[in-house]
Amino acid sequence: MALSSLQGLRAFRAVVELKSFKRAGARLGVGGSAVSKLVAGLEQELGVLLLQRTTRTLALTEAGEDFYESAARVLDETESAVERLRERGGRPAGLLRVSVPTSFALRWLGPRLPDFLVRHPGLELNLSLNDRFVDLVSERFDCALRVSTTLEDSSLHARRLGRMPRVLVASPRYLKSASPLRTPAELAAHQVLVYATSGMGNRWPFTVRGRQLTVPVTGRLQVDNSLMLREALLAGLGLTLTPLFVVDDLLASRKLVALLPECMPPAHGVLGVTTQRRHLPMKVQCFLDFVQAGLHASGYGEAEPR
Question: Is residue 306 part of a domain?
């Protein structure tokens, strides 16, 4: 197969999966017009129309629908073969696509990534920062990191890389005028700041005398990114229950105060999620090993953080 044909197949696949020449170009690192030319060249080579294009819509033709699955299979097999050849030298190589929660990526993973890339010069890393649970198969991710207590999709496999305690925090500024807080039940008298995509919603989990319970909470601010809560906390707008990595620096500098430490719910796990348990590509194995070692080194291993 000619190199131009492979490039056309990649362009065609990206357009089908992303439903846009522009977004396909972003995935492939070229402009949308270049993607359009590659697909047109592939169609000319095959002698058949694969995509119906109008100013507003983009749809597969019947021939395109038949061809897509075969094209995707050829590309997957080619990429796997290339990676296996590269890895014969004992070094991970190729493109590694990883989905990572936004806050975890910015607060914990980001500062450590340069070291990973220096260690593995044969890897090209494509990170997607997103707090939703992506579909690893349809969106073609090699793996994902998740900060969660459970893995809801039973078709996936989770490797526990570390643990992330949760903390209830507020600023001294907020606490000066707030009601006393001695038990989780007294949260009813407080303004809370809610991380909307945490799965907790307006019912927060706690542990009281060894028993698990949930407490209803109310507040004026809900956001879908936990980093947004930092400024609201510092401004004294309320308190929040959050993974420790979101606020560990603010606790260390005493800009925030930990509350009810004896009532915290079980720690989240930091999970490395893949579609298979065995025979992971070397590039995936190396990345998950790196994250696990980093979590242990920074105090977020299986032992309690210092």
Answer: no
pLDDT band at 304 (very low <50, low <70, confident <90, very high): very low
Same domain flag for 23 and 109? no
- Please give the model's pTM, rounded to 2 decimal places: 0.71
- For residue range 161-184, list pLDDT tens digits in order: 999 999 999 999 999 999 999 999
Evaluate whether 128 touches 247 at the Cβ level (below 8 Å): no
Q: What is the pLDDT of residues 45-72, one digit of tens each?
A: 999 999 998 877 888 999 999 899 888 8
> What's CA 220's distance to the chain center, in Å?
27
Are 134 and 273 in the same domain?
yes
Say how many domains are in the chain.
3
Lookup: tokens for 267: 């720690």
Strands (E), 49-202: 51-53, 58-60, 94-100, 123-129, 143-148, 157-164, 166-170, 193-195
As a whole number of angstroms, the distance between CA 277 and CA 267 comes to 24
Closest to 51 in 3D by CA, of 22, 16, 11, 4:
16
CB neighbours of residue 262 within 10 Å: 8
Task: Collapse the DSSP code of 231 into the 3-class scheme (helix H, G, I; strand E, B; otherwise coil) and give the result.
Answer: helix
Stretch 67-92: mean pLDDT, rounded? 76
> What's at 22, amino acid-wise?
K
